Amino acid sequence: MTLLDGKQTSKEIKEEIKTTVSEMKARGERVPHLAAVLVGDDGASLTYVGSKVRSCEYVGFDSTLIRLEADISESTLLKQIDQLNRDDTLDGYIVQLPLPKHINEEKILLAIDPNKDVDGFHPANFGRMALELDAFIPATPFGIMQLLERYKVPTSGKHCVVVGRSHIVGRPISILMSQKGTAGNATVTVAHSRTENLADLTRQADIIVMALGIPEYLTADMVKEGVVIIDVGITRVADQSHPKGYVIRGDVAFDEVAEKASFITPVPGGVGPMTIAMLLKNTLLARQWNLT
Amino acid sequence: MTLLDGKQTSKEIKEEIKTTVSEMKARGERVPHLAAVLVGDDGASLTYVGSKVRSCEYVGFDSTLIRLEADISESTLLKQIDQLNRDDTLDGYIVQLPLPKHINEEKILLAIDPNKDVDGFHPANFGRMALELDAFIPATPFGIMQLLERYKVPTSGKHCVVVGRSHIVGRPISILMSQKGTAGNATVTVAHSRTENLADLTRQADIIVMALGIPEYLTADMVKEGVVIIDVGITRVADQSHPKGYVIRGDVAFDEVAEKASFITPVPGGVGPMTIAMLLKNTLLARQWNLT
Question: Most CB within 10 Å of its CB: which of A88, A222, B42, B229?
Answer without folding.
Answer: B229
